[in-house]
Specification:
Elements: H1 3-8, H2 22-25, H3 38-46, H4 55-58, H5 66-74, H6 78-86, H7 92-98, H8 120-134, E1 149-153, H9 157-167, E2 172-176, H10 185-188, H11 197-209, E3 213-215, H12 226-231, E4 236-239, E5 245-246, E6 259-261, H13 262-269, E7 289-293, H14 297-308, E8 313-317, H15 329-337, E9 341-343, E10 346-353, E11 359-372, E12 378-382, E13 388-391, E14 394-397, E15 401-402, H16 406-409, E16 436-438, H17 441-444, H18 449-469
Parallel strand pairs: 1-2, 1-4, 2-3, 4-16, 6-14, 7-8, 7-14, 8-9
Antiparallel strand pairs: 5-15, 10-11, 11-12, 11-13
Helix pairs in contact: 3-5, 5-6, 5-8, 6-8, 7-8, 9-18, 13-14
């Protein structure tokens, strides 16, 4: 092969993402991943093969035309790239940061068969950040109004997506958010160093520019019920109120001071800005020795937050091995770089107090892996007599979330499953109650941002058909 031909071949490795130095970033809450500079983004875009069948598009829950937007970046047409993305995704700066592309669009990238797939998520972030930096965010022309009104409960990824899509179909959309900031889990759950809140607000502002109204501090199920929304003139309701009910282990000592659910711990730090003390006087216990129980992204967010809040020893306690951890690989890698200590094949059995009501240690038992369970991962089995203690002053339980029962319990005719999740058609979001649709974590249980957005997209199409058929 001639030298020139070799130079044209795509490289088999992604261009690395520039990041803050670990020694510096554990002392601040600034974003860790710094984004591709222009020349790197264009070089990474050159790696794309532009496949005609485009399996990456099929792997994207919101159906972005990935080869087209990457081709625009390759040509230096960055605004064309972001406009192509926004044909399908109204939250590109968020998705480019927190979506697990490695398990979706990048997983099926043809280039990944012989090397590393194209860095689709990083290129999406580049295009979105370029648009924001230029101050050139413009809303597309709004269609003629249909006269139909839709209420969206919850302003997380599913709610924002369904609201934006319905607005672009000509419907009048109002989003009802229980908290004082729109964004749902994007603002209360994901730390600043992974997803800056200014980015979330700009994405929310973009959805608002499409004609969507946001009503904050409005708890549906308390201030208004679903039936009252219908009575006030809404012809369809979408429930995207998430899975924000904390899950605990039900072991002795969980009522001690210094024990948090991950929901409370991250909400205090992120939404209530405890990390900006003393500018924000939100109380949070800054432990010197912090144990986080769990192995998912929420556990990684919690333990990395603890490190930044001053923990000298920040532990991840996980009952399986690192190979089975559900967290994104890059989040595990970042945590390790930041000095997080991984205590694998270990499960807490009780939390010990100091006699004055405060945590002093966590007692654990060692585990071994048996046969795979229903999740496909090998089942952890306790090793008798292997109990030991780890001195800690803060424990964060990050083992999953449940469905908040408030909306379901105040909505007659709305069916839920045994876990309290709303039962909805996976292709349409239609629930057992006419005119009520649902999607995201309240249906599936805690999942990813992009899957919730995909559910919102499908529900928007179904709601549009429902409204036009009436």
């Amino acid at each position: 092969m001639a030298e020139g031909e070799a130079a044209k071949r795509p490289v088999l490795q992604k261009y690395p993402m520039p990041r803050q130095d670990p020694g510096k970033r554990i002392h601040n809450f600034n974003e860790v991943a710094l984004g591709y500079p222009e020349e790197v983004a264009r070089a990474e875009a050159e790696r794309c093969l532009g496949c005609k069948k485009s399996p990456c598009v099929a792997g994207c829950p919101v159906e972005i035309d990935i080869p087209s937007f990457i081709a625009s970046i390759r040509e230096g047409e960055y605004l064309a790239a972001i406009r192509k993305i926004k044909e399908k995704n109204c939250l590109p700066a968020i998705c480019g940061r927190v979506c697990p592309q490695e398990d979706q669009c990048e997983k099926v990238c043809v280039l990944g068969r012989k090397g590393e797939p194209v860095a689709i998520g990083r290129l999406e972030r580049f295009a979105a950040d370029y648009e924001m930096a230029q101050g050139l965010i413009d809303a597309p022309p709004r269609p003629a109004p249909t006269g139909k009104k839709v209420a969206v409960v919850g302003s997380g990824p599913a709610g924002l997506t369904v609201a934006g899509d319905l607005a672009m179909m000509g419907h009048e959309v109002t989003v009802f958010e229980a908290l004082h900031k729109a964004g749902g889990v994007l603002v209360y759950g994901i730390p600043e160093f992974r997803l800056p809140k200014a980015i979330v607000q700009k994405e929310v502002d973009y959805v608002a520019s499409l004609g969507v109204e946001f009503r904050l501090d409005t708890v549906i199920g308390k201030l208004l019920t679903v039936d009252e929304l219908f009575a006030s003139g809404y012809q369809a309701v979408f429930l995207g109120n998430g899975a924000g009910l904390p899950t605990f282990m039900n072991i002795p000592g969980e009522n001690l001071n210094g024990v948090y659910s991950a929901n409370e711990y991250l909400t205090r730090s992120n939404l209530m800005k405890a990390y900006l003390f003393p500018d924000y006087d939100t109380p949070i216990i800054r432990g010197r020795n912090v144990a986080v129980v769990g192995g998912g992204n929420v556990a990684m967010d919690s333990v990395r937050t603890a490190r930044r809040l001053g923990a000298e020893n920040a532990y991840i306690i996980y009952r399986r091995s690192r190979a089975e951890m559900p967290a994104r690989h890059e989040e595990i890698e970042n945590a390790a770089e930041e000095g997080v200590q991984f205590v694998m094949l270990t499960n807490p059995v009780r939390i010990l107090g100091d006699g004055r009501g405060w945590v002093k240690a966590i007692e654990c038992i060692r585990m071994e892996l048996g046969e795979p369970d229903e999740s496909g991962r090998r089942r952890p089995i306790p090793i008798p007599g292997s109990e030991y203690q780890i001195p800690v002053d803060v424990v964060v339980i990050a083992i999953g979330n449940g469905a908040n029962p408030l909306v379901a319990s105040t909505t007659p005719g709305l069916e839920v499953n045994r876990w309290g999740n709303i039962i909805a058609d996976p292709e349409t979001g239609q629930t057992s109650k006419e005119g009520v649709f649902a999607g995201g974590d309240i249906v599936t249980g805690a999942a990813t941002v992009i899957l919730a957005m995909g559910a919102g997209r499908k529900a928007a199409r179904a709601i549009d058909r429902y409204l036009r058929s009436k």
